[in-house]
Amino acid sequence: MISLARRIDYLPLNNRPKIRWPNKARVAFWVIPNVEFYELMPPQKVRRLAIEPVSPDPDVQGNVQRDYGNRVGFWRMLQVLDKYRVRCTVNINLGVLERLPEVRDAMVERNWDFCFHGFYNTRTDPKDLSEDEERTFYRDAIATLKRTTGKQLKGVNVIGRATERMPDLIAEAGLIYNADWFHDDQPTPINVTKGRLVSVPYASELNDSALVLRNRPWELDHLLQMCKDQFDRLYAEGADNGMVMCLAIHPWAIGSPHRINYLDRILDYVMGHDGVWQTTADDIAEYYLANYYDEVVAHIKKLAAPQRSSGIQEGRDA
Fold first, then answer.
1. Are 81 and 112 in contact (CB under 8 A)?
2. What is the pLDDT of residues 262-274, one digit of tens each?
3. CATH of range 4-310; options 2.60.40.10, 3.20.20.370, 3.40.50.300, 2.60.120.1440
């Protein structure tokens, strides 16, 4: 297994192969709704997800918040996304697909792609598993998505649930990207023991849930401005070197009546520009693998060669 410290090689922005997106787009823009299932009463022996506020069971507040998102917020969000013909990558709790067929069918009808976000938003999942059990866990996720939607799982975003060996195991299972890393504005290779894996940049701050969980709704004006500022900078840089912008949204947050207008305004601004490749994480990863992965890996090795010869940089762990 490769150590966590060696998962991603340092590659400065000013010294890497330049990216050209399809149709000379400057920015690859992907939107990732987090469609979640929060159990009212998780199984007794299940450890709750560490990033969630820990409340005694039944956790009514956590449950009804997500329930509102799936009952109301999802459909309101969908209207705005449809208005701009945005094809999404869903950060999906797979429990949604069997428990809420109406939501599942709406996403499948729009040919959205799916990113694995655990089976339920109330469980730590692989944190408590052995290596073989974790390997089976990802295979079960792939099989569940295929059975319920007909779609092939290609990536994961399991913040708070990830193990050190997860990149190796998901690459072994045939997945091609991980969206847990916030370290870059472009895709980058992730070192794995077998196969190829890409980091697709996710949004740590352009994320509506952070505002709602802090109970600071007045910051939505700031979110709108942040999205504009982020896009403007990436769009300018993208004229020379293609960039990635991710917008992470949650139906239980952005789908509220007093918030939904902000999603409309963000999309109106971004989609109003030429040179935007509105796409999915699946397509970004596949394009990068087909056109840049090998070139970037070779470039990293070339940069590291002088350091290795002088004994500065250690090699990969066995």
1. no
2. 999 999 999 999 9
3. 3.20.20.370
